[in-house]
Amino acid sequence: MSTVEETGLTAPGPAVEPPAPRQSPLDAAERKLGRLLVAPGQLLLVLLVAFPIVMEIYISLTAWTPTGGSNWYVAYRDWIWFDNFIEGLTSESFLSAVVRTVLITIVAVGIQFVIGFLLALLFVEKFPGRRIATILFLLPMMIIPAVSGFIWFLLLQTDGPINKMLSFVAPGDIRWQWLSDPSFAPVAVTIVDIWQWTPLMFLILLSGVMAVPEDQLNAANILGASYWQKLRHVILPIMTPIIIIALIIRAMEAFKIFDAAWLLTQGGPGEASSTISVHLYRQAFINSQWSYVAALAIVVMIGVSIAAAQAIKPIERRQAAEA
Amino acid sequence: MSAKTLRTTARTVVIALILALFLFPVYWMITMAFKPQPQWAPTTGETYWFPESPTFGNFKRIFGGEPTDESGLGFLTSTPIDATDSIITSLIVAGLGTVLALLVGISTAYGISRFRAGGKLLPFAILQLRMFPPIAVIIPILFLWTYLQLNDTYWGLILIYGAVTFPFVVWLMRSFFDEIPREIAEAAIVDGCSNFGAFRKAILPLVKGGLATTALFVFILNWSDYLIALVLAGSRVITAPVFLSQIRSASTGVEFGSQAALALILILPPVILAIAIQKHLVRGLTFGAIKR
Q: ipTM score of the complex?
C-alpha cells in the first residue's frame, strides 16, 4: 500500500484490500464502558496534577505565608505578580541547588553506568554462584531510602568505618568530616545514590546484554574479532536503546533525590549539599516561604516537563516497536 | 596458569571486590543491630568490626524494653522507645494505599488496554507525574489536605499513597493486559458473559501472576516512602520510616543500636518481597519499558 501512495497512483477499484483490522471496532456501549473504567484514574490525575498546578500558580503570584494568619484562598490580598519568580530565578541558593542537583545526577548516573555495565558483562557467562551473587548484589536497591540514609549516616561518621578503612589503605589517620565539611557533604549524598541504585542499572543492562543474539557473537568469533571489537561492534550497537532507557530512568529518579540527602546532611553544612528537593523542603517547612516555594516548584516542573518530553521519546519508540 | 584460568580468576576477584564494597553497608547495619551499647557508641573511638557478645537488647529497646546499660556508666537513662504503633501504622497505610492503587490502576489499565479509552495522552500524563519531584507537588496537596482535614490522618496517607502509586499499576498491568489476545474476552462475551464477567472469569486468571507482582511492587513503594509521610503526617500518625529518623536518645544524642534494630526490621519485608518478584522488578521500575 505504501508503494502505491509513494508513486501517487490511486488503487484501481477494490484490488488493494485494506489490511485486516488487528482489533475489531468497538461499539458505543464498549466505548462508554472504557470511559467509565478510566474515569477514577483521570480523577486522581486531576487531584494530583491539575489541582496542585492551578493552586501553585495562584499562590506563586502572591506573598501569602502560612504564618500570616489568613487562609490560602484569600491570598489575592497580597498579590505581587511575578516577584517570587524573579526572586527565585536570581536567588543564588536556588540556582546553585539546581546546578548541584544536575552535577550529582551526572556523576552518580555516570558511575552507576560504568560499574553496572562492567558487572553486566562479567555476569553474562555462567559461573558457580551467579544466581546468589545476583540476588546479593540487588540488596542495596531493596533497602528503603530512610534506612539507607541512616546506614550511611553511621558509616560516614568521622570515626566511622569508612574513614577507618581509608586509613588502612591510605597513609595517615584519615578523619574526613563527610557530613559537616562543605566539600565532602555533596560527595556523601552522591555516594549513597551510587550505592543504592547501581544494582538497578546492573539489572537493566544485564537483561540487555543477555538479549544479544548468540549467533552474532559466534559470527564475530569466526571472523577472529577480539573481545573489544565484539564489544564495540556487536554488543554496544544492539544495546544502545536499552542503555538510553537505563540512563533516562536513573537520571529522572536521581534528579528528585531527597530522602537520603535530607537524612544525611539536611542539605548542610549551610547549603553545601542542598539539592532541588531539599532546597524546596527547607524553604517551605523551615522558612515558611510557601508562595516563593510555589513559584520555584512551577519553574522546576516546567523544566522537568521540557526534559521529560524529550526523554520519553526513546521509551515510547521502544514500546511502539514491541507492540 | 593458562589464559582462561587467569581470566576466570580475574573475573572472580573483580566480582567479589565489587560485591564486598556494596554489601559492607548492609553488613554494618545488621551487626550494629546486635551490638551491645558500648560497641555501637564507643567512647574510645574504637571500631568493632565484628559484634562481640551479640545481644537482642537493641530489639527489646525499640519495643519498649528497658534500656540495657551494659557499660555501667549510666548512659541510657532516656525514656523507653516503642516502635510497635509506627510499624502497625505503616502496614495499614501502605497496605490500604496499595489496595486503592490496584483498584483504580487495574480499572484504568483495562480501560486503556481493552477499550483504548483515555486517548493517547493518559499514559503519558501518568508517566510524567512520576517525573516531578514529589516535593513540588506535595505542598498544594498539603493545603488541600488541611482544608479537608485529612492532614495527619490514616485516610489522608492512604489516599495519597494510592494516588502516587497508581501510575505504576497502570503501566505494569497495561503491559500484562496487552499480552492477552483480545479474542479471549470476546469469546467469553459470546459465551454469554457480561463485560465484567469476561474480565473476572477469562482475563483475571490469566494475569494473576502479573497482578501479584504488581501488588507486591506497589506495596514496597508505599512501605518505603519517607517524604510524603513526613510532610502530610508525622505528629499523630507516624509511619515507621519517620519514626526511625526521629529516634534520639535524650542523654547521648544517638541511638545507633536501637535504630539499626528497627532499620533491620523495616527492610525485611521489602527485601523478601523483592526477591520473590525479582524477575519482574525491572519491568516495574522501568514502567514496563523493559520486559524480561
A: 0.86
